[in-house]
């Protein structure tokens, strides 16, 4: 990010003075990091001042110190202006885990595939994202995804916010299928301004559950009217789950 400050060059004399900033003094010693000054040269009228715009756009993290020199007519030594700036890198670490505690880190340099696997309609599955700020400055984040969702509902619990240095935030991504459907490459983006961007492709399927009843019809036949409920006709109906997972 470029930042800009204003300094004033003041002439308290009763005569005009020429000034010129030395271009080589606009760079850090041993670093490819420089300042931009406007104007670089000019004439100061008697008893006047001139605004000098100083722009600083860091190219690397760390502290940068500049010793800017300005040559002024009739002065034997140049004026010196000491400028320092610190640049902090946005350093997030994003991991994802499921309810089975399996955990992995997301890669900002490639597309991350998040597979919810096989589900049934009205079942909800959850993945938990751990956003950790490893940097020295506060970072901001936001989840971006389409609200146009057909036959499924996907949402993230914490859609955006800020994370202070060395702090973390947990975001839950919930997916619920509303009907039998196939979800493939639904794009979700975790955007961190001035930092990396994480692209996630969500996948999953919903099929009708594999189950059966021990019978679908039963005839109790002729029955007598009972005065009490101590004696009654009954039969056991069994519900058989053929899925590999528990069914609610």
Summarize the structure.
The protein has no helices and 19 strands.
Overview of this structure, please?
The protein is mainly beta. The chain folds into two domains: 3-87, Sandwich (Immunoglobulin-like), CATH 2.60.40.10; 92-206, Immunoglobulins (Immunoglobulin-like), CATH 2.60.40. The chain is built from no helices and 19 strands. The protein has strands at 3-11, 17-21, 35-38, 41-44, 48-56, 62-72, 79-87, 92-97, 103-105, 111-119, 124-133, 139-145, 152-156, 160-163, 168-177, 181-191, 197-206, 211-213, 239-241. The strands form five sheets. Strands 9-8-11-15-13 form a five-stranded antiparallel β-sheet, with no helix packed on it. The model has no long low-confidence stretch (mean pLDDT 90).
Describe the secondary structure blueprint for this structure.
Layout: E1 3-11, E2 17-21, E3 35-38, E4 41-44, E5 48-56, E6 62-72, E7 79-87, E8 92-97, E9 103-105, E10 111-119, E11 124-133, E12 139-145, E13 152-156, E14 160-163, E15 168-177, E16 181-191, E17 197-206, E18 211-213, E19 239-241
Parallel strand pairs: 10-17
Antiparallel strand pairs: 1-5, 2-4, 2-6, 3-5, 6-7, 8-9, 8-11, 11-15, 12-14, 12-16, 13-15, 16-17, 18-19
Protein name: HYDIN
GO cellular component, one term: axoneme
